[in-house]
Amino acid sequence: MTLEHIQESVNFIHKQGITIPETGIILGTGLAKLVDEIDIQRVINYEDIPHFVTATLESHAGKLIFGTIEDKNVVVMSGRFHAYEGYSFNEITYGVRVMQALGIEQLLITNAAGAVNLGFNKGELMLIDDHINLQGGSPLAFKNAKDFGNIFVDMSAPYHKNLNTKIEEIAHINNINLHKGVYASVVGPQLETRAEYRYLKTIGADAVGMSTVPEVIVANQLALPCVAISVLTDECDPDNLKPINIPEIFEMAAKAEPQLTILFKELLKTL
Fold it and tell me: Where does the record place the Nucleoside phosphorylase domain (predicted)?
């Protein structure tokens, strides 16, 4: 990946008549209904954009969507990339770099995660306050990474405090049960063992998933304020662990999605 690659992607997008977006949004597994709230101006398939990679999962649409929500210009990645798909960290985070080059001023991220904190229930939301990177690598560890900014990025507050505060206030006003906690990002795609869930709890994780952290690291390198919300789709109790139920995960994502939509729409009003 080079700066020239990013510019070629941006030039292609501009040729589609895209105006400068104000906010970027990344939609996670089973969380595509926010698209219904967009006054869509243009949809571009990932495979049509130079140097973009292709989403391989059925639950990720693989489209870059431009439009407005609450009269705010947004660019939405409907579908993201994961290490377990065989992608490098550069490929996983390429969309963040392109959105920043397009002009976004903040990044909103969603994901589906398992609740390690047994005080949290499936179908609820968690605002990510901090994270633990267990993916075994960094999107800043490549030869020409310095071309994109400082690689020794401060991560003392990776999630923007003011944006997080606004999200919490919106949740309170709208009677949305919004937890706040630490997200651990693992490689996957296999789910965790009982011993691994105990380990995650011991090291301070409240939820676990397979995404988000690489994108947040790059956002911080680019000085791009970001927030991230997890939809808790299953409960990770090592003493009462049940076999994974994929249909239920999508059901729980759908259950929480209306509340997530409220949070993002109301946040956009304030930006």
Answer: 24-268
Q: Measured between alpha carbons, how far is 27 from 108 in angstroms, rounded to an integer?
A: 9
71: helix, coil or strand?
coil
Polymer length in residues for the chain = 271
Output the six-digit token pair for 227: 């927030």
Quote the number of domains for the chain.
1
> Could you give the 3-state DSSP secondary structure of residue 241?
coil
Q: Rounded to an integer, what distance in angstroms lies between the CA atom of residue 197 and that of residue 116? A: 7
pLDDT digits (tens, 9 = 90+) for 108-159: 999 999 999 999 999 999 999 999 999 999 999 988 888 888 999 999 999 9
What does the radius of gyration of the chain's CA atoms come to, in whole angstroms? Answer: 18
Whole domain around residue 116: which residue ranges?
3-270
Among 110, 98, 94, smallest CA distance to 207 is for 110
Q: What is the CATH number of the domain that holds 230?
A: 3.40.50.1580
CA 110, CA 228: separation in Å to the nearest integer? 6
Question: What single string gives the DSSP state of each residue in 158-227?
Answer: -S-HHHHHHHHHHHHHTT--EEEEEEEE---SSPPPHHHHHHHHHTT-SEEESSSHHHHHHHHHTT--EE
**pTM of whole model > 0.70?**
yes
Query: Which of 82, 73, 255, 242 minimizes the C-alpha distance to 177?
Result: 255
Measured CA distances, 217 to 51, 155, 225 (Å)? 21, 8, 11
